[in-house]
Amino acid sequence: MAISGYAQVGYDPTQRTLDDEIPTMGVGEFYRHAGRTYQYVRFNNGAGNVASVAGRAAYWRDSSAFEVTMDKTDNEAGAAVAAGCAGIFLGVVTDLRYTLIQTGGTRATVRLNGAGAAGNKVHAPAADTDGTLTTVTFAGAAGEAIPAPIVGIQAAAADASNDAEVYLMIA
Q1: What angle do CA 45, 42, 64 make, to 5 degrees?
Q2: Can you spell out the DSSP letters for 83-122?
Q3: What is the pTM of this model?
Q4: Exposure winner among 27, 119, 128, 141, fewest CB in 10 A?
Q5: Secondary structure class of 65 (helix, strand, coil)
């Protein structure tokens, strides 16, 4: 049954990592579970052979084919462009296999470029930082100068590893 154009999944995608050799869901389709949204995509390690890691950013390698990478240099928007975040990886995925990435709702661990604070904007970096998103305050010149689409809102300051809870707003 679809709600608002999103199919429901009967299990919690965060409790298992899909690593499908052949598609088992509609590639590019969005799914909803417990107030969170996910998209089924194909993973590509990219030219830099960068493996996926849970809680790290997935960048569009080829959005028309629903193919993502964690290699920022292979981002279709360009490595130096603050755009192109497709979602957040739920776990390690084998190169050229299919998986779900989280695109909306609360995600407990998202890797950021610093500690930040609750209420900060989270967006794709304008530098080659594989899997890491940028956090910046809404107030002031820095927050107003960001050209990138907002990926989410930081819920709390990050831990010592710069992992923070983020409310994702990609889709």
Answers
A1: 105
A2: --EEEEE-S---TT-EEEEEEEEEEEEEEBSS---TT-EE
A3: 0.90
A4: 141
A5: helix
